[in-house]
Design goal:
mainly beta; about 10% helix; about 140 residues; four-stranded mixed β-sheet
Length: about 140
């Protein structure tokens, strides 16, 4: 019984650390600057986005909740019509055509994300898979592999 409780506790701790969910009392917490959308399928893709924001002290909000077009060519589409204050962010991106999704989250008060402004990146890949990433704001989207 004790081993199971210890393993469950260690698993939860490891998961929280990997997700950047540890917190610090630093006032220079990172902010979310924008989201970038792109399609690598050769055509524009409709992507359903839900961005959930939870401040350290306050209620949860959904500053982005709707369907957006990811362009097939040229620069990625920026979405920045939200206030990206420090807090916990979770983004769910779903390809309307391929029915694939990706979920990504971060805690801006955690030390794992750094102090600069950040951006979520979402790409509908040629295969129809949805790829999501967290990067420093202003960086180009670069899919590994």
């Amino acid at each position: 019984m004790r081993r199971r409780a210890l393993l469950c506790s260690l698993g939860a701790t490891a998961t929280a650390a990997l997700a950047g969910c540890s917190t610090s009392d630093s006032d220079d917490a990172a902010t979310l600057d924008r989201l970038l959308l792109r399609s690598d399928t050769g055509q524009a893709e409709q992507v359903s986005l839900t961005l959930v924001y939870a401040p350290r002290d306050g209620s949860t909000e959904r500053p982005i909740w709707g369907t957006f077009e990811a362009p097939a060519a040229g620069d990625p589409r920026p979405i920045d019509d939200f206030e990206g204050a420090p807090g916990f962010y979770s983004l769910t991106a779903t390809s309307e055509r391929h029915h694939n999704q990706a979920v990504i989250s971060f805690n801006s008060h955690g030390g794992a994300v750094g102090a600069g402004p950040l951006q979520f990146e979402v790409v509908v890949q040629e295969s129809g898979d949805v790829w999501a990433n967290l990067n420093e704001a202003g960086e180009d989207i670069s899919i590994p592999g």
